[in-house]
Amino acid sequence: MAAGSLVLSDDSIVSRIDRSLLRVEYAMILVGGLTVFGLMLLAVFSVGGRNFLNAPLPGYVDWIEQLMPVIAVFGVSYVRREGGHIRMDIVVGALKGRALWLAELATTLAILLVAMLLLWGSWEHFLRSFDISQPMWSRDSSMDIGLPIWPAKLVVPVALGVLVVRLCLQLWAYSLAFKHNQARPVAVPLLADVATQAAMEAKQVSSREQEEAN
Amino acid sequence: TEWSVSLWGQRRAFTEHVERLAELVSERTNGEFTLNISYGGLSSNRENLDGISIGAFEMAQFCAGYHADKNPSITVLELPFLGVTSLEQESDLSMALYQHPAVVADLARWNATLLMPSPLPQYNLVGVGDAPATLADFDGLTVRATGGIGAAMETVGAVPTSMSATEVRQAMDSGVVRAVSFAPHAHMSFGTIENATWWTTNLNPGTVNCPVVVNSDALVDLSDEHREVLLGAVDEALDHYLSFYEEQTMAAWGPALEERGIAQVSFGDAELSAFRAAAADPAATAWIQQNTARGLPAQELYDFVTGLIAESN
Amino acid sequence: MEALDIGIWVTCFLLVMVILGMRVAFAAGLAGIVGLIAIFWARKDFAGDEFGWALSVAVGTAGQVPHAKVASQALSLIPTFILIGYMAYYAGLTKALFEAAKRWIAWVPGGLAVSTVFATAGFAAVSGASVATSAVFARIAIPEMLAIGYNKRFAAGVVAAAGTLASLIPPSAILVIYAIIVEQDVGMLLLAGFVPGAFSAIVYGLIIVGLAMTIKNFGPAVGGFTWRERFSALLPALPIVAVVVIILFFVYNPIPGEVAIGGSVIDIPFGGDSWGTPTEGGAIGAFIVFLMALYRGMRWSEFRDALVETAKLSVMIFTIIWGVLIYVRFLGFADLPGAFADWITSLTMSPMLILICILLAYAVLGMFMDAIGMLLLTLPVVFPAVMALNGGLDVSAADSTFGMSGPMCAIWFGILVVKMAEFCLITPPIGLNCFVVAGVRDDLSVQDVFRGVMPFFIADALTIAGLVAFPAIVLWLPSQV
Ligand code: NA
Ligand code: NA
């Protein structure tokens, strides 16, 4: 029951880029969701195969391990766009105007630093498992049925790459907000206090209830 | 000099040689060279070669079967039914293979130098329900066995299932699998013998190969004196490991089985050779074919290993 | 600078970043990377030309974590449990449960509130997350309570408190997270949450009955349902029972495989073997609820929304997991958990007093922090200390401080900590469940809900005291397996 989006939009360039990027990010999170569903089906096949056909799915654990990074990491940028990563907003929640945008600029910059360092580290981690000269380009394989692991490892730098683009865009939007002392800037998640956020969640639930009633 | 050593789990028979090595090295250098052992704090067990490669720690242990493509050359020792009969033989065989140029080159891709093995006994099966009397009884048996051992079990009609070691006990108690393939110490520490009814004494389907490696640069950077101490202590550490495994683990194993009234199943020579014929040769052929494709002198490695075994038996 | 000093400095740096409002996952990741750089650079005595080396090793070490720690079979339970909750909502199970609870138990004093608690406990058996549970029940239960004259603050408080049951009663995402951090058997922990969850529900129920009997005009009992009406209400709620039973059979099958009757052994069909592992049980539960939602006419757009919401919550949780595990990787290099455990065990206070202090510290911390973030940040240091206090991970019950073996102590402490974390969902100033309930109702402010939920502080304090004093409440069920 997560909150609806708190990101405003208009005709400015920064907002247009925001929405284009959102399309990519939404596709990525949807792939993550479909993968959760796939994980469920995988278990159904495994259990069904074992109990009814005495033929368990070969490499069931290996396949789960391949799918998990897609679920866990692929949508990281979408969640950032929606302001969904958890934080303590006791201090930020008390800030207003330029002070708030400055604080957001600072933490976004810090997150950009983390994202870029991890992009580097996870890319190298991928490269260590990848060798174009080997069968299936594989230099690292899973335990049971020997699946190449590089595709699953590649998920992380790809997701972080999109996150880096998103963070740069947000830096731009926050600096505009700071420069013009905007009250409600576009392309960044607005700091709803927890109560407003909860109200949006509640609305979402209510709208579903209503749909059901109709 | 202080080296960080990345192991996993907790101190057990499987890590006694590293613990002993740390003691010996520290003693013989008057504490100037120490090995700081961490159980799981520095890396996950499947990422230990990565950590060695980037230089996060200087020494680590891993198992070849965790990631065959990272270390294809030493997986030859995990082929089923090689016919290794003792821990000591397993140890000597590993040490010999670790010197082979193709193996050295394989691990050099990770900036790693093989130091010593962690020899494990054969992965015989512990199971619940009616004990198998002949190979035919394996037909339809659900068994937790991974990699080559799983493939071998499949040739006699068993149904191998993969799951993480921590889920094995529950899977067995609940009947998801009827038998589990582990080394004795793991059968004891993962509790598979608690409700089991039978154990195969001489099926000997194979084992895993778990070397201890060091970061090659760090080894070069050691002073001549310290390097000599380290390499010179390997044999003694391995001896300690072997006697610990024999005296502590295997000595506890027999009584543990008897205490729980677990039937010990032995198969006749005819049965075993039939099993071997069905499983061993196809597995070896497949291994040679796959690893030749990887650019390894696979036939040569296989002949090297089987030659050494034939020589010593 | 010693590794331990670096550990303490970096931990302070992390706390400052978190308090200043940096997203917890990335603050932890940054602290971890900075700490790793310091650790590796210290090995080269902070020589200026070695900084580049230290940076690349630190980044290489941290860069493994997002893939390596997330690609795990056990963690696959988390998205599965979240999916079950969303699917159950579309399958119409929430309303059915409330209706059934109302017809069966609303005749006791404070009946509708008690019914709300037990309907929520029932939904908890298919939902893995507390906040979602409160949001759903606020919509269904509060209007009915208000209609028959309940105080609106109290009605809101009941829903906010009852929602926390979802994290004790399996399935529970937070119990899985605990099991992963401390490397204990997930199945056992989930099983262990069942009785304390039911115990919590009963304590909530008793508190309500007590209030209803002492306060005038509290809210009438609701009786007058015929048996026919009662039984007919069970039917729509039955799928929940079916799901719970099927999951139970998948994971623990309590029926013996054969019985001896008069000298002959008789096979029981479906007896003996369970049909799967916890991972599979969760997935099968999700699948059954999915089929129900399909039967109820779930559309593609709803299905897509459910998947996106599931993925979003999963990503949020997993980002904290891998972010914090980068920090934990650094802690491993600094050996801070070992040092903290040594310090705790060297204290001269009684071990029970130390444990109580730790739980109180969680209560304070939880006022300001999210439950998952709090557990992930603290457990790597606190858990080894508590285990050491009990005499180590391998200690037998006879040699231990608290009278339970190492693995049992891990389960007991896990349930205590999760109960604390849930308690924090209803305490001001950041009690998320209360915000959610206030959000559902335009006529309720957050302060109203916080006031209404206060009786349940007492209930939770009693529950926690009960779990500390009588560990058997937690350990009886897992010790039967
Ligand atoms: Na639950
Ligand atoms: Na709170």
UniProtKB/TrEMBL annotation, chain A:
<keyword id="KW-1003">Cell membrane</keyword>
<feature type="transmembrane region" description="Helical">
    <location>
        <begin position="26"/>
        <end position="48"/>
    </location>
</feature>
<dbReference type="InterPro" id="IPR055348">
    <property type="entry name" value="DctQ"/>
</dbReference>
<comment type="function">
    <text>Part of the tripartite ATP-independent periplasmic (TRAP) transport system.</text>
</comment>
<dbReference type="GO" id="GO:0005886">
    <property type="term" value="C:plasma membrane"/>
</dbReference>
<dbReference type="GO" id="GO:0022857">
    <property type="term" value="F:transmembrane transporter activity"/>
</dbReference>
<feature type="transmembrane region" description="Helical">
    <location>
        <begin position="99"/>
        <end position="120"/>
    </location>
</feature>
<dbReference type="Pfam" id="PF04290">
    <property type="entry name" value="DctQ"/>
</dbReference>
<keyword id="KW-0472">Membrane</keyword>
<keyword id="KW-0813">Transport</keyword>
<feature type="transmembrane region" description="Helical">
    <location>
        <begin position="154"/>
        <end position="174"/>
    </location>
</feature>
<feature type="transmembrane region" description="Helical">
    <location>
        <begin position="60"/>
        <end position="79"/>
    </location>
</feature>
<dbReference type="InterPro" id="IPR007387">
    <property type="entry name" value="TRAP_DctQ"/>
</dbReference>
<comment type="subunit">
    <text>The complex comprises the extracytoplasmic solute receptor protein and the two transmembrane proteins.</text>
</comment>
<keyword id="KW-0997">Cell inner membrane</keyword>
<keyword id="KW-0812">Transmembrane</keyword>
<protein>
    <recommendedName>
        <fullName>TRAP transporter small permease protein</fullName>
    </recommendedName>
</protein>
<comment type="similarity">
    <text>Belongs to the TRAP transporter small permease family.</text>
</comment>
<keyword id="KW-1133">Transmembrane helix</keyword>
<feature type="domain" description="Tripartite ATP-independent periplasmic transporters DctQ component">
    <location>
        <begin position="39"/>
        <end position="172"/>
    </location>
</feature>
<dbReference type="GO" id="GO:0015740">
    <property type="term" value="P:C4-dicarboxylate transport"/>
</dbReference>
TrEMBL record, chain C:
<protein>
    <submittedName>
        <fullName>TRAP transporter large permease</fullName>
    </submittedName>
</protein>
<comment type="function">
    <text>Part of the tripartite ATP-independent periplasmic (TRAP) transport system.</text>
</comment>
<dbReference type="InterPro" id="IPR004681">
    <property type="entry name" value="TRAP_DctM"/>
</dbReference>
<keyword id="KW-1133">Transmembrane helix</keyword>
<dbReference type="Pfam" id="PF06808">
    <property type="entry name" value="DctM"/>
</dbReference>
<feature type="transmembrane region" description="Helical">
    <location>
        <begin position="154"/>
        <end position="181"/>
    </location>
</feature>
<feature type="transmembrane region" description="Helical">
    <location>
        <begin position="410"/>
        <end position="440"/>
    </location>
</feature>
<feature type="transmembrane region" description="Helical">
    <location>
        <begin position="187"/>
        <end position="212"/>
    </location>
</feature>
<feature type="transmembrane region" description="Helical">
    <location>
        <begin position="281"/>
        <end position="298"/>
    </location>
</feature>
<feature type="transmembrane region" description="Helical">
    <location>
        <begin position="233"/>
        <end position="252"/>
    </location>
</feature>
<keyword id="KW-0472">Membrane</keyword>
<feature type="transmembrane region" description="Helical">
    <location>
        <begin position="6"/>
        <end position="39"/>
    </location>
</feature>
<keyword id="KW-0813">Transport</keyword>
<feature type="domain" description="TRAP C4-dicarboxylate transport system permease DctM subunit">
    <location>
        <begin position="12"/>
        <end position="473"/>
    </location>
</feature>
<feature type="transmembrane region" description="Helical">
    <location>
        <begin position="310"/>
        <end position="331"/>
    </location>
</feature>
<feature type="transmembrane region" description="Helical">
    <location>
        <begin position="74"/>
        <end position="92"/>
    </location>
</feature>
<feature type="transmembrane region" description="Helical">
    <location>
        <begin position="112"/>
        <end position="142"/>
    </location>
</feature>
<keyword id="KW-0812">Transmembrane</keyword>
<feature type="transmembrane region" description="Helical">
    <location>
        <begin position="452"/>
        <end position="477"/>
    </location>
</feature>
<keyword id="KW-1003">Cell membrane</keyword>
<keyword id="KW-0997">Cell inner membrane</keyword>
<dbReference type="GO" id="GO:0022857">
    <property type="term" value="F:transmembrane transporter activity"/>
</dbReference>
